[in-house]
Write a structure and sequence with these properties.
The chain contains twelve helices and no strands. It has helices spanning 2-8, 12-33, 36-40, 66-101, 104-118, 122-132, 136-145, 150-164, 167-174, 179-215, 227-234, 244-271.
Length: 279
């Protein structure tokens, strides 16, 4: 009931920001899907062109349109971010709820698992998992999923523990409702605002870590027009003055991350809840 009341409250500024951010991200994703062929098409007659009216982001050493490559790379990164964040968020919800509802042994095991994963730096654990799975698309996705659930699981565990001792849950238990019914009717709706807000805030971390691992050579293959591949390939040409090969794709990646951050903060304002930042 509290969730419905919060959603009914007028917050036009936050709603407009959320719609704008989601709309722009969806537009970039769709645009990138249609730029797949142009992103890999070489044209040696116009190689190494600086940004201008004909090519807004310039061209690279093979004459490939950097705007098309950037759009395709952002689209791929956003899709990876959405898939991995959703799976990682679902894992966090299951483990966080299990730790709070299944007794001391489950709580101790999940807490130990959280501490174990958080004891290893994100990027190092991601590289290890990606390499163990042969790198590529699935290696990166699995690595991101298993390195981004811990903070959200810890938050949801704390929220469920707090809701277990609330008055309406205790009253429902005294009225004879079972544990499953209480969890679905009273506890789950209470943690959904924190879950969805935390889920949105997982997206930028997933995108940045995918680009970082790919940039280091442990992620997506060089044949794919991913942002990490573009930035990695452009490093050897920066000394020759071709700044646009790295600066413009990097700025586009930062813009996508900021849009996800704007969506998360707007969603948090709509639900008027406080979610700590992902580490």
């Amino acid at each position: 009931m509290k969730l419905l009341e919060r959603l009914r409250e007028p917050r036009p500024a936050a709603a407009c920001k959320l719609i704008l951010a989601v709309g722009l991200l969806a537009a970039v994703t769709l645009w990138g899907l249609f730029c797949g062929d142009a992103a890999v098409q070489a044209d040696f007659s116009r190689k190494n062109l600086a940004p201008g009216p004909a090519c807004l982001f310039g061209t690279d050493w093979l004459g490939r349109d950097m705007l098309a490559r950037t759009a395709a790379g952002l689209s791929l990164s956003i899709r990876i971010g959405v898939v991995t964040a959703c799976v990682s968020g679902a894992l966090a919800l299951v483990l966080g709820a299990a730790a709070a509802l299944l007794g001391r042994w489950a709580d101790g095991f999940v807490t130990w698992l959280i501490d174990l994963f958080m004891g290893v730096p994100h990027i190092l654990l991601l590289v290890l998992i990606s390499c163990a799975l042969g790198r590529g698309f699935w290696g990166v996705c699995v690595g991101i999923v298993f390195t981004h659930w811990m903070s959200l699981a810890r938050l949801l565990r704390a929220e469920v523990l707090q809701l277990k001792t609330s008055g309406y849950v205790l009253a429902a238990r005294k009225l004879g409702q079972g544990s499953v019914g209480i969890a679905l009717r009273h506890i789950l709706p209470g943690v959904l605002p924190q879950f969805f807000t935390g889920l949105v805030l997982l997206f930028p971390h997933a995108i940045l870590h995918e680009a970082s691992v790919t940039f280091l050579g442990f992620g997506l293959s060089s044949e794919q027009p991913a942002i990490g591949v573009i930035l990695s390939e452009s490093m050897q040409y920066l000394a020759t003055g071709r700044w646009w090969l790295a600066v413009l794709p990097g700025a586009a990646l930062v813009g996508a991350v900021l849009l996800f951050d704007l969506a998360g903060r707007s969603l948090k304002q709509l639900w008027a809840v406080t979610v700590p930042a992902e580490g």
